[in-house]
Design a protein that fits this description.
repeat; 18 strands; LRR_dom_sf; leucine-rich repeat; 274 residues; PGIP; signal; five-stranded parallel beta sheet; 4 helices
């Protein structure tokens, strides 16, 4: 016996609603974690991210060009976000490759929650108020990471060897912190083009000999890092180096001849040394 017309209509409506909901989820697969991030951090995201529009149109969100509408980038710089933690739901954006949280008021220890963002390539946490050491297991960050910017925070302690295990890094910026420990040997970062350690209160130490092994280096910024002793001649082997700033240190002796023969060098800044 066929069901009454009213029951048939109700079943059709429920199926339509189910299909519409499923279709909506397929069109906006990252909606739920984004709403959780918005609710976690509150203003101004609660104002900027209006759930009546598709999230790919929300400020600071970049989506893939494919029809999947997967979030690939979050640029939330200079929004006055104030928090001591990162929402765990951020790493549920499984295609996230670029994260810029610079120029906010994010604090507390290094956000190890980000270890779960396994596809990150660019991570910018600069100009915040993070404190404490850079973790000794920082290599648990994405193996795809090419840019790590931790500059202008309050990180202290050493530059850990864990950073040397992030071998895809092209740019590493740790300048303007409170780093006052040893600098690990980073010679394994063979793809590194930018190394910025400037303006940290390291203890007096000689020029790191491993720097001459960073064959891809283009920018070396070591201003006011308490360097003492001579500039090593091995620095002349950095054939791609364009800018070298080791000013405001305690370097002594001559500038090695090989430095003058570096064909790519455009900026050499060594004032206030010995």
């Amino acid at each position: 016996m066929a069901p009454p017309n009213g029951v048939t209509a109700l079943i059709s409506l429920l199926l339509l609603l189910l299909f519409t909901h499923s279709s909506s989820q397929q069109q906006q697969p990252d909606l739920r974690p984004l709403l959780e991030i918005r609710d976690f951090w509150g203003p101004p995201l609660s104002t900027l991210w209006n759930s009546s529009n598709h999230y790919c149109s929300w400020p600071g969100i970049q989506c893939s060009s494919s029809s999947s509408s997967s979030v690939t980038g979050l640029s939330l710089s200079n929004l006055n976000i104030t928090s001591t933690s990162i929402p765990p739901s951020l790493c549920r954006l499984t295609h996230l490759s670029s994260l810029d949280l610079s120029w906010n008021y994010l604090g507390g220890r290094f956000p190890t929650t980000l270890y779960n963002c396994t596809n990150l390539e660019d991570l910018n946490l600069s100009q915040n108020v993070f404190v404490g050491p850079i973790p000794t297991d920082a290599d648990r960050l994405s193996p795809n990471l090419t840019l790590l910017d931790l500059s202008s925070n309050n990180f202290s302690g050493s530059v850990p060897a864990s950073l040397a295990r992030l071998t895809s890094l092209v740019s590493l910026s740790l300048d303007y912190n409170l780093l006052d420990g040893a600098i690990a040997d980073l010679r394994n970062l063979t793809k590194l083009e930018t190394l910025a350690l400037a303006e940290n209160p390291f203890p007096p130490h000689p020029f790191p000999d491993w720097v001459g092994r960073l064959s891809s280096l283009k920018v070396l910024w070591l201003r006011n890092t308490n360097l003492v002793g001579p500039i090593p001649a091995s620095l002349g082997g950095l054939s791609s180096l364009e800018a070298f700033d080791a000013s405001m240190n305690g370097l002594t002796g001559p500038i090695p001849g090989p430095v003058w023969r570096m064909g790519s060098l455009k900026h050499l800044i060594l004032y206030k040394n010995r």
